[in-house]
Amino acid sequence: MKAVRKSAPTRGSKPGERRGGRQKGTPNKATADVKEAARQHGAAAVERLAYLMMHAESEAAQVAAIKEILDRGYGKATQPVSGDDDAPPIRHRTIIELVASPHSDS
To answer: What residues in the chain have per-residue pLDDT under 50?
Structure first.
């Protein structure tokens, strides 16, 4: 007699199903204290970066300070995505079409 093997229950979550972890929008409590402590020194850190930008002896230190100030003030520059080193960056376009409801008055 041949043994019939039962399949094991599936593991993991189904697409779109959430099983654990924080709910969307809930802050990470483990890093919240560290972020708050760093924010208390934010103004002094920017002042020091500005000082280094103007007075550091090495040009590398000045450039690093300038980069940090610009990244914080304007955000980091976007990086183009490419599938091939010789290919141009991939461009993405989103088209949204607004369609009137058949039940509208207009």
So the answer is: none
